[in-house]
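Entry for the shared binder. Reason: the reviewer on the internal report wants the predicted structure included alongside the sequence.
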Amino acid sequence: MRYGIRSITMDEIATSLGISKKTIYQFFKDKDELVFAVIEQETGENETECVDFRNNAVDAVHEIFLAVENLDELLRYTNPLVLYDLEKYHPRAYRKIKDFKVEFLHTATVENLRRGIEEGLYRSDLQKDIVARSRVESAFFVFNPDMFPHGKYSMSEVNFELAILFLHGVVSEKGKPLIEKYTTERNKKLSHEQKV
């Protein structure tokens, strides 16, 4: 995640793990199989985290903030070229991420929209399927160097702004103050982390 996938060799992986390359090949046929296993594990962990966000969030808006905060932590050490490397050199792993977006993230976003509507925090007239598809795709814009050149934009800032844009598009009048509340809490936390 930190250095990109293409630039890391099996020798470097073995050295980092303190094992021989031969040991890795006892478990994985090649680098492509290893990358797929890592992506499979990451998407599985992400599913568990999303369920936790849903269960631990005070409300639907808070759930989005929890997800954004979690993604921020991942983006701090992620090379922006990871998705590019996957698409170009590891198509099976890239397909796994695309399936994860379509099958899990879309469903989780629809559930968040449904929750927000039930809580009166989101507009009741939302076309949930369309809005969910838009949100899932926009969350991955952060990795698009054509849209947000990586030297010019912080991936974390792009992630947050896209989430806020989404929230302002879906919240009702009752939900608007929560965006401000959770943004203030986030800013205080970030300010505290920078001091430490």
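Summary line for the report: The chain has a mean pLDDT of 93.
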